[in-house]
Amino acid sequence: MNKYVLYTDPGHAWLEVPLRELKILGIAKDISSYSYVKDGLVYLEEDCDLAVFAEAKDKIKEEFDWRVVHTDHDAACRGYQRFDAASV
User: Fold this and answer.
1) Going by C-beta distance under 8 Å and a sequence separation of 6 or more, which residues neighbour residue 25?
2) CATH of domain 2-70
3) How far apart are CA 30 and CA 51, in angstroms?
4) Pairing outcome for strands 41-45 and 36-38
5) Domain boundaries, the chain
6) pTM above 0.85, yes or no
7) Rounded to 5 degrees, what are φ and ψ at 38?
8) pLDDT tens across 7-58, in order?
9) Class of residue 60 by CB neighbours under 10 A (exposed 0-12, middle 13-18, buried 19+)
């Protein structure tokens, strides 16, 4: 089972996933600009993009889990570059 990190702050959450995995799953083009990217890692926003990822994993019958890292202030990924599906 693959393990990931879910970063949370008081307002939102993002799952950290390698960009190469999104490409392998064929969903990189489906990720919105509400997600962020830095150093080959994509931070999938919880409302839509995390669901796209979960559905893709479900289609290939691959389970995954995450551990939560919470901060009481804005998560660092809020300062990263917005994901641009057209550039991947």
Assistant:
1) 53, 56, 57, 60
2) 3.30.780
3) 11
4) antiparallel
5) 2-70
6) yes
7) -160, 130
8) 999 999 999 999 999 999 999 999 999 999 999 999 999 999 999 999 999 9
9) exposed
